[in-house]
Amino acid sequence: MKASARFHGRWTPFALGFPQLALVALFFYWPTLKGLWWSFHLVCPFGHCSTFVGTGNYVRELKDPAFYASLGTTAIFSSLGVGLSVGIALCLAWMVELHQRSGKVFRYLLIWPYAVAGSVLGVILRVAANPTIGVMGYLNSLWPGFWQPHLIGAQAMAMIVGAFAWTQIPFNFIVLVAALRAIPGDYMAAAAMDGATPWRRFIDIQIPLIRPQLFFVGTMNLIDSITNSFALVDTLTQGGPGGATDILAYKIYRDGFIGLDLSGSSALSMILMLLVLAACAVQFITAERQARREV
Amino acid sequence: MVERHPLLNATTLVLLVLGLVAALGPIYLAVCSASVTSHQILVHGLALIPGDRLWENLGAVLHRADIGRMLLNSCAVSLIVVAGKLALASTSAFASVYFHSRIRHVVFWCTFATLLLPLEVRVVPTYAVASDLLSPLRTIVEWLTGLRLNLSINLLDSYAGLSLPLMASATGTFLFRQFFLTIPDELAEAARMDGAGPWRFFVDILLPLSKANFAALGTIVFLATWKDYMWPLVATSRPEMQTIALGTATFLPTETGQPPEWNLVMAAALLALAPPLVVIGLTQRWFVRGVTGVGK
Amino acid sequence: MTGPAIQVRGLSKRFGSRTVIDRLDIDFAAGQFTVVLGSSGCGKSTLLRAIAGLETVDEGTVSIGGNDMTRVPPQSRGCAMVFQNYALYPHMTVRENIGYALKLQGLARHERMRRIDEAAELLGLAEMLDRKPAQLSGGQRQRVAIGRAIARRQRVLLFDEPLSNLDAKLRHDMRVELRRLHDEIGATTIFVTHDQVEAMTLADQVVLLNQGRVEQADTPATLYHRPRNLFTAGFVGTPPMNLLDATHEGDRLSVEGGGEVRLDRRTANATPVVLGIRPEAVLLHATTGMDATVEAQEDLGSHRVIYARLGKQRLLVTEHGPRTLRPGQTVRVGLPPQAISLFEKASGERIGHATGDVPA
């Protein structure tokens, strides 16, 4: 932007930016610092007293088998959830692009699940996936004991992975449809003239051209799977059975609010933050590299 | 695309219909089960076709618990967050783009950093701040002067407490910043030549041009706030301050107690998802634009 | 009602280590139409924006009507500006666009309307006052941008390549109209362009800029017929002036690869020079002169441009009337001494017109 398009003045920009800065300071920086401080102290349950313990909390967490179990659960949940939501959304976006006649209707309807909050989906699934009265109840009456998510960890995991994907697909779908539609029609026409089938066009032209957006939705999903899957777990499985769905975000909440272990919970938060940071960094670096390659 | 192959057409259509069934299935099941009696669900299992008791069940839910109040809370909190975020995002983006002052970098980078750490990850200390808003002030004053102040404000169980932490994020600032950067420089120059100062330029030129962005950001912020679960869970303890996304979950049967009334649970779920569904249905253009513009 | 004179003194502007404007001194005469001409990157837009106050300067002063305006904010300099992409406010109607500055000045509504109508009348915009910019054609938008400038009754009008987004026909019409407007309102006008046709047709004075310096500031005719240096000679005119290497000795000028021309001017020692002559001044089928070989020709309808060769040097000649030449043919060309410009080979500076003054 040209310097001449900018205004002078010292106080005006300050006044304009101040409300946002104040809010961010109060509800972002202060809590983050507080969490960081807690993570290096042993804090009593309501936070009124503390002793400095250095990295003691981190060491304690990193020696705790429950931490690794939770980390492993998070890894499984995130990778499956992200893969499923990106894969299905991509497939649907491609179908909509191919089927232009009715594509518009589907484009309109397929984004409706965005309206459903994670907790509300959890509540619906508590009924719909209920072993006795739910949809799977019919299978249970054929093979008794087939579907028992409250007892079988893998089934509970499958349930929250599916539910997570369901909540993420509309977002991915919107972004990917927009990306596919942004590809100049000439490219597709040229490929068709070259004799490429729809499948080859998808693999050779469309996917490479929308790679930035694919990567973008993947990262967004990944961050969401780490941070935003709390509602699903809380309403569907509460981390059970036997810790099979005890992802880190849920463990932080449980340790902090139910176990009142502010130090351990804060140390976990910081570790989780590093994971999110790493995800952001990968997204940023890849986007940069891609941008540079295109220049 | 270019060709019209009947087999291709049929395959894509089948896959799309399957996708649609999966997408709308849970909502459909909720409608079905919310429109039958509790007895029918317990005896025959989940309803697969709608019954005729939808209105009665919805009425019963509205009667049974403070669902009306929860809907009102959700509306109030969502609208407060929308208004607050639009105001903060547009002004801070303006400050971060259209000034010579160094402050524009401060505004931008301080806001940018919030992207790195979602509320869910820092929920425990944020709770601590909300329960004792002046603790930063007290700590700083004590650190500087050694004085102990005896002031405190507790934001828990209040609209302010429910909405302010949700506003403290960067997404809106980014949307506006990106948009402002696409506006030709000459427009600002022309306004300067015409004698407009920064405020006039902001009010007369920038805001009218940003209408679509206000609508887009407003829509997705409304939806995100409405759907939020974790913050209301920790920031409220009184039932009358709960939001609907949270309150629906309290309808779930506890381990002990009478036979669960699944039809009412589903009716509550329907009430929780209907308003955002209407928003999406009616404002599709803004909504899609918001999603592609901001991320989430 | 004549606009004020503008003086630029010692003006420099650097972006980082790049010097865009280098100690410029220019006078813009009161009420005159001055065109600042130059190729892209020569600093002409920066100069204009420095005068407008949109760009701060590193050194030097800008004074308007005798008052130092170097540190005065743009809205207080009494200038109005028309931008290359017009910069119309897209959400406002034509009326609101033209009236916005007047509103900010706090002018009463009826006075505002009167001035808007006046400007619209002058520019033929009366029909479209209630339309938005998106509903207008390029030429109409252009007129609104001009209307916005003149409704403020500023005595200085600044134009930043305003015609470059228009098609050829419209550009021609707008040129005529701009000149008429200028004569009507008498403001001091500075018009920046890279198009020499605009410079030649519009200007009272042309300032030719190159790499942040003034190469020549003169009337269009002087610029064309008496270029001060090789840069001006090569820049102005389509097709460009022929520049031939030659040696000046005594009163003879011998063109490399060609023959000799006898001049009025004499030198003691043989000096290498560059001979400049406009294609239309070269005589074809001359009785005395030098032999050139025709290589190709372009027929432009009203005339033809002949590409000929004098030894290793290229010579362009325009031919009017019936076609007489074919490629490969040899033709005798004459270089009339009174049409020749001489430049020092080393410095590129003009040595002086071979004879006399600018042809009438």
What does this structure look like?
The complex is a heterotrimer of chains A (295), B (296) and C (360). Chain A is mainly α and 295 residues long. Chain A contains 13 helices and two strands; from the N terminus they run αββαααααααααααα. Chain A is globular, with a radius of gyration of 24 Å. By secondary structure, chain B is mainly α. In chain B, helix 4 (67-97) packs parallel to helix 8 (159-167), helix 4 (67-97) packs across helix 12 and helix 12 (211-227) crosses helix 16 (284-294). The longest helix of chain B has 31 residues, at 67-97. In chain C, the strands form four sheets. A six-stranded mixed β-sheet of chain C has the order 6-7-8-3-9-10, sandwiched between helices. Chains A and B meet through helix 1, helix 3, helix 4, helix 5 and helix 7 of A and helix 1, helix 4, helix 5, helix 6 and helix 8 of B.
Sum up the structure in keywords:
heterotrimer; B: 296 residues; mainly alpha; MetI-like fold; 71% helix; C: 360 residues; alpha+beta; Rossmann fold; OB fold (Dihydrolipoamide Acetyltransferase, E2P); 2 domains; six-stranded mixed beta sheet; five-stranded antiparallel beta sheet; 24% helix; disordered C terminus
User: What is the fold-level CATH name, i.e. the topology of the largest domain in chain C?
Assistant: Rossmann fold
- Separation, N- and C-terminal Cα atoms of chain B: 30 Å
- Counting DSSP H or I runs of 4 or more residues, the number of helices of chain C is 8
If classified by CATH, what would the architecture of the domain at 72-240 and 273-292 in chain B be? Orthogonal Bundle
Secondary-structure blueprint of this entry?
The complex is a heterotrimer of chains A (295), B (296) and C (360).
Chain A: H1 11-39, E1 41-43, E2 50-52, H2 56-63, H3 65-98, H4 100-109, H5 118-128, H6 137-142, H7 153-182, H8 185-193, H9 198-209, H10 211-227, H11 230-236, H12 248-258, H13 262-294
Antiparallel strand pairs in A: 1-2
Chain B: H1 6-33, H2 38-44, H3 54-64, H4 67-97, H5 103-112, H6 123-131, H7 135-145, H8 159-167, H9 171-182, H10 185-193, H11 198-209, H12 211-227, H13 230-235, H14 244-250, H15 262-282, H16 284-294
Helix pairs in contact in B: 1-15, 3-15, 4-5, 4-8, 4-9, 4-12, 4-14, 12-16, 14-15
Chain C: E1 6-15, E2 18-28, E3 33-37, H1 44-52, E4 59-64, E5 67-68, E6 79-82, H2 94-104, H3 109-123, H4 138-151, E7 156-160, H5 168-185, E8 188-193, H6 196-202, E9 205-210, E10 213-218, H7 220-225, H8 230-235, E11 242-255, E12 260-277, E13 283-284, E14 290-299, E15 304-310, E16 313-319, E17 330-334, E18 341-344, E19 350-353
Parallel strand pairs in C: 3-8, 3-9, 6-7, 7-8
Antiparallel strand pairs in C: 1-2, 1-4, 4-5, 9-10, 11-12, 12-18, 13-17, 14-15, 14-17, 15-16, 18-19
